[in-house]
Amino acid sequence: MALATVRPQVRRAAARAGGRRRAHRQALLVVLMLLAVQLVSLARPAYACGCGAMVHDPKTTMAVGRETSVVRWDGRTEQIVMSLQVNGTAPDAAWIMPVPHRATVKLGDPAVFDRLATLTEPAVAQRHYFWPHGGDWPFGHNGDAAEAPPPSAGSPGVGVVGRERLGPFDVARLTATDPGALRNWLKTHGFHLPAPLASALRPYVSQHWEYVAIRLAPAERHRTLSGTLDPLRLTFASARLVYPMRLSALATTPQSLGLYVLAPHRMEPRSAIGGARPEVFFAGRIHPEGPLQDLAGRHPAFLTAIDQSFPQPHRITGDHELRRTAHDTPFRRVRYEYALLTVAGVPAWIVTVAGTLLLLQAAAAALALSVAARRRRRMPPATG
Question: What per-residue string of b and e applies to 347-377 under the rule 16 or more CB within 10 Å gives b?
């Protein structure tokens, strides 16, 4: 009987141990599958930016975290100064910028972006509070005011307009009547681009646009591309203000666009083209100075600064076309700095409390004198 009882217990223990081993194997398999998916995603290039940034080696990655551009338009000619912030493991990169007419290309001035960032900084306004906060006496002392949070030889179907070396950039200016032939030419001449690019370029080919293909490699060998790339400046004729964005639909990561628009009047995008609602963070007439004069000239211009995010780039439906707004309404963000209200350097709450106490004391003294006077009047006169 004892032996018959032990054997089922042994079998149950062995079954439990086998179940645990199977569960461990399944968990390990799931982990390995997740790692494999991550490795595959890392090996896939991350196409990004309005111009469609690509990488040379399919085993490396490249992503454009933010695309910042200055667009100058006078009604006939458009200039784009484009700066890309990139990160990844690629040693070099190439991208293509569609343009509605023939373009000239040269290096841009990074100081333009510094100047525009200064011009569009929030205005600072001060607000006061009456009762002391945590950093004020008697709760403590903090000398700094609390700051409120702020409320990128031809072949059949392809024509080579020009090819030049601009600093670290190899720039090819092209025409094309066939998107497949354009992609083949780029691939043959060292611009390794993704297969979906031919389909993405088809609308531009049908509209007879031209193209600026750009290839970039770091000056130092074996160094990956990271940080802010040198800006490029493109100039072309255009009867309307357009900023190419269609190729951003190839991006696999969320995109962010910062657009400074210099034009005779305040401008706005006609639509969100599949991104979040564009947000204006500055609008106003400026007098170009320093590095901006070469781009905008010496005459006053209206500057409109726009931010937009694209959480799902595949939803992008076309290019940004900007139009004049009904009114040139100025706008500027305001950053509030909060400080304790003072009177002649003394906190107002202390002055108020002290004044109130003095008034109460004076009222109490006056009341006491009044009561004493009434009592004296009621007292009978003294008799001898």
Answer: bbbeeeeeeeeeeeeeeeeeeeeeeeeeeee
